[in-house]
Write a structure and sequence with these properties.
Layout lengths: L10 H16 L13 E4 L4 E2 L1 H14 L4 E7 L3 E4 L16 E4 L7 E3 L3 E8 L9 H18 L4 E3 L7 H11 L14 E3 L2 E10 L3 E8 L8 H9 L3 E3 L4 H15 L2 H4 L3
Parallel strand pairs: 1-3, 1-12, 2-3, 4-5
Antiparallel strand pairs: 3-7, 4-6, 7-11, 8-9, 9-10, 10-11
Helix pairs in contact: 2-6, 3-5
Length: 266
C-alpha cells in the first residue's frame, strides 16, 4: 500500500459521530452484559487507501493495540483480497481491473468496492481474547445482526451448517484458487433472505487476534458502522489513527503487502 495521509470528515459529520459515541458511552438502559467488549476504540475515518495499505494498517494496529478496536475502511480502487492460503493463479486474471492483495488472515476471495469493510483487533490482555475463535466470530456477527435489524434488515446468523465448515472452507481456499467467500456461507456468517452478506477471517498471534470482515450490499454511509460498534461495546470512544501506526503501516505496505513476492507466494 502506498503512503497516504489521514484526513478527517467535515465538522458536522464529526459532531454527529461524537454525539452517537457519547450516547453509547452514557446509555444505561442497554444490557451491557451482552456486549463482547467492555470498551472499544472506534476508527471511523473515511479516507480511502490502497489494498496494501489497508492490510498494513490492520497489522500495525494488531502490533500496538492495548484496547480492543474496530476500524472501518474504504478502498482507493476496486480491490480483490485473497486469503493467506489462497493461490494467486485463481485471481491473476483480475490483475488489470482490481487492486490485488493477499490478506494475513485466511479464507477465500473477497471483492471490495462498495462494501463496508472492517477489522477488529483484540489485544492478548483483553478477556475476549481467551474465548475460542469460533465464539468470537459468532458474537461479532450477532452484534452485526443487531445493528442491521435497526435499519429493518431481517438478518440472521447462519446456524444450520456443520460447525466444522469453517475449517473445510479454509482448506478449500488452499486447494481452489477460485474459492469465493460470499458464494460459500459457513456457520455463523450473516445471511439475509438466504444470501450471505457478511463473512470474516481471523489470525491469532502473540499480540492478539485480528478479524477482518466484509459486509456486502449495504450503504456504507447509512450509520451501520456506528450501530455495529455500539452493539459490540457500550463504551465506545472514537480515535484517530496516530502517526506511529501510519508510519509502521507504510513500512509494512512497502516491504510486505505491496510486493509481488507476498502476493504470489502461493
Amino acid at each position: 500500500m502506498s503512503s497516504e495521509v489521514e484526513t478527517s470528515r467535515d465538522i458536522s459529520e464529526f459532531e454527529r459521530r461524537q454525539t452517537f459515541l457519547d450516547f453509547a458511552r452514557h446509555d444505561k438502559h442497554g444490557d451491557t452484559t451482552l456486549c463482547l467488549f467492555s470498551s472499544l476504540h472506534v476508527y471511523l475515518n473515511n479516507t480511502a487507501h490502497s489494498a496494501a495499505m489497508n492490510m498494513a494498517i490492520d497489522e500495525a494496529l494488531l502490533e500496538q493495540a492495548v484496547v480492543p478496536s474496530i476500524r472501518f475502511y474504504r478502498w482507493h480502487f476496486p480491490a480483490l483480497s485473497i486469503g493467506y492460503f489462497g493461490r494467486f493463479a485463481g485471481v491473476a486474471s483480475y490483475a488489470g481491473t482490481r487492486d490485488l492483495v493477499r490478506r494475513w488472515t485466511g479464507g477465500g476471495i473477497v471483492f471490495h468496492a462498495n462494501d463496508l469493510t472492517y477489522s477488529i483487533v483484540i489485544p492478548v490482555n483483553d478477556a475476549a481474547f481467551g474465548e475460542s475463535s469460533t465464539s468470537i466470530y459468532e458474537k461479532v456477527h450477532r452484534a452485526l445482526v443487531d445493528a442491521l435489524s435497526v435499519s429493518g434488515k431481517r438478518a440472521v446468523v447462519a446456524g444450520g451448517v456443520d460447525p466444522g465448515a469453517i475449517a473445510v472452507a479454509t482448506r478449500a481456499a488452499v486447494s481452489a484458487g477460485s474459492y469465493s467467500c460470499f458464494a460459500n456461507p459457513v456457520r455463523a456468517d450473516v445471511m439475509i433472505d438466504g444470501r450471505k452478506v457478511a463473512g470474516a477471517a481471523q489470525r491469532r498471534t502473540r499480540s492478539g487476534l485480528l478479524q477482518q470482515g466484509s459486509i456486502q450490499g449495504v450503504d456504507p454511509d447509512s450509520g451501520l458502522a456506528e450501530r455495529f460498534a455500539e452493539a459490540l461495546s457500550a463504551n465506545c470512544s472514537e480515535r484517530k489513527m496516530n502517526e506511529e501506526i501510519l508510519s509502521r503501516a507504510r513500512e509494512l505496505a512497502q516491504r510486505k503487502y505491496g510486493t509481488n513476492s507476498w502476493l504470489r507466494r502461493r
